[in-house]
Amino acid sequence: MDDHTVIGRAMAIIDATLDADQPISLAQLSRLTQIPKPTVRRIANTLAGRRLLTRNAVGYAPGQCLITAGNRAAERQGIRMVSAPYLQELFERAGGFIWLIETTSLDHLTLVTSVYDHTAVLYSNDWPRNLDEPAIIASALGQVVLAGHPDRVEGLLQRGIPRLTRHTPIQPRHVLAALARATSEGLAVEHEQMLLGWSCLAIPVAGPGADHAVLGVVDRTARFDAGKLRRAALAAAGGIGKEWRISGEECAQPAARRPGEHVNELRGNTWG
Question: How far apart are CA 196 and CA 174, in angstroms?
């Protein structure tokens, strides 16, 4: 049913192409969505221009950007479901602020999920997540992520690390030493380097293929004991990574075909 809104019409057109098992014509789209043909043409062509749909001589089909976005959303939901029990268990043991950030793309660090009590709200609002800002390299998160990217580290050092607190490492040799420790130990710890009164432990999580994340534990410095947290946090990171990789392998496998099931294949069509 046409709701006469741009977003509603665009979603109706996208849904129609997703439901079809082959490219769908302009006339069919108009009939199925009950949207006037000129409007369907304009919206569908706009979506095709953004690669949310693809168009050929037969009609319109889901585009690569739509497929990619759907796959990424499914993967993110997968890691969220996998990690939630581990984060909850770690929170019950350690308290504070427990978080998991996906770091597969260095341009978009994405918070997957978190568990925290009201005392950690201040830090949860203020902690840095932008790898283009030099301050990130003073954080445990930044040190874990950037330890394997010396080119980005060099650029940040050239711009200069701002002194956020009296504990912030701003000298290049101190920063490089912290990165070396993060590499050798497989984790990073910060004490009041980003915000006075707060400490953080960060541990990398290896997902399927090139996917990566970082598990973090943040709490007030006065009650933060990295030594006690280390074993529990490492176990959580290892468990998350293992289940994440298994779920990724399962998603990559094609669905099993039932005996006698007919598979409708498109032959000779150019979808790109």
Answer: 19
193 and 138 Cβ atoms separated by less than 8 Å: yes
Q: Which residue has the tokens 């007030």?
A: 220
Residue 74 has pLDDT above 90, yes or no: no
pLDDT digits (tens, 9 = 90+) for 110-149: 888 888 876 655 555 556 668 889 999 989 999 999 998 9
Rounded to the nearest 10 degrees, how much is the dihedral formed by the CA atoms of 106, 112, 117, 123? 10
Tokens of 263: 């598979």
Kindly state the tokens that stand for 6.
């741009």
Closest of 52, 50, 47 to residue 63, by C-alpha: 52
Question: Domain-by-domain residue ranges, the chain?
Answer: 6-62, 71-252
CA distance 154 to 175: 11
Task: Determine the 3-state secondary structure of 201 from DSSP.
Answer: strand
Residue 36 has pLDDT above 60, yes or no: yes
- The dihedral built from the CA positions of residue 239, 242, 243 and 245, taken in this order, carries a sign that is positive
**Domain 6-62 grouped into CATH 1.10.10.10:** yes
Q: What is the pLDDT of residue 131?
A: 87
3-state SS assignment for residue 99? strand
For residue 96, pLDDT beyond 50? yes
Pick the CATH number of 71-252 from 1.10.357.10, 3.40.50.410, 3.30.450.40, 2.60.40.10: 3.30.450.40
